[in-house]
Amino acid sequence: MEYHKKIHHSAAYIQEKLGKIQDGTVAFITGTGLGGLAEAIENPIAIPYEAINEFPVSTVKSHAGQFIYGTIDGVPVIALQGRFHLYEGFSAQEATHNIRVLGEIGVKTLILTNAVGALNPSFETGSPMLIEDHINLTGHTPLRGENVDAWGDRFPDMCAVYDPTLRALAVDKALELGIRLERGVFMQVMGPNMETPAETRMYRRMGADAIGMSTCMEAIAAHHMGIRVLGISCLTNKNLPDCMKDAPLDEVIAQAEKSSAAMTKLIRAVLKEIPGLTE
């Protein structure tokens, strides 16, 4: 089946279950260990990924694999508990199937969260980092292949993938809440192996402040569809090439869960202000 038809099938199933989503609905994707944000959703309607026509199913143990619709503090939201990674064997298009579906059902604002390693030695582990820009070092793009003109231009401009207004709002809310918010460039690599010391030095010299195995594919696809993107990372560990330490998944998840309270607090504060930005 053609790619865009699979997207339409998934979107049609969701719309059949939920009806037309409210204007101003904000979607967010919860990364490793950050699924707790979905617990703040009021009157949730949850649909397992495996129940949605043509929808991929995540294989990562910390990803619940649910599409949840409801409200947070009166703001209509969609939470995607679980994402799809290139290292799982998904193509770039499959890894952004969820993003295309969000665009098809009318979502205009997307918040991407992830758990990442800090490359910038001045960054504090456990703090959130505002993604100001990214480096896609995977060698893949969800825009490869035939362009669907209804979604966006064949050659989309990428000078402001992460919406400046949303970024400024996140900075303001972090200051109000007294949350230390790092700001930097995120790099996506293929994974699933972690970085060697030599690779860590190279990535830092290339301009990356944090590194992970997701997000860039999603941001590219969303930007292509005209969806405003805000990216916030949880810095779960620090990659220092001269004193590298193991970063097992269990420890990454534990740190992300420990830090999720500040992330949740910040994102809820941002959510309250987003409707006013779109009026």
From TrEMBL:
Coiled coil keyword on record: no
Domain Nucleoside phosphorylase residues, every copy: 25-272
Gene3D superfamilies, alphabetized: Nucleoside phosphorylase domain
EC numbers, comma separated: 2.4.2.1
InterPro entries registered for this protein in UniProt: Nucleoside_phosphorylase_d, Nucleoside_phosphorylase_sf, Purine_phosphorylase
Enzyme class: transferase
Pathway the protein acts in: Purine metabolism; purine nucleoside salvage
Keywords, ordered alphabetically: Glycosyltransferase, Transferase
Function description: The purine nucleoside phosphorylases catalyze the phosphorolytic breakdown of the N-glycosidic bond in the beta-(deoxy)ribonucleoside molecules, with the formation of the corresponding free purine bases and pentose-1-phosphate.
Protein family: Belongs to the PNP/MTAP phosphorylase family.
Name of the protein in question: Purine nucleoside phosphorylase
Lineage: Bacteria, Pseudomonadati, Thermodesulfobacteriota, Desulfovibrionia, Desulfovibrionales
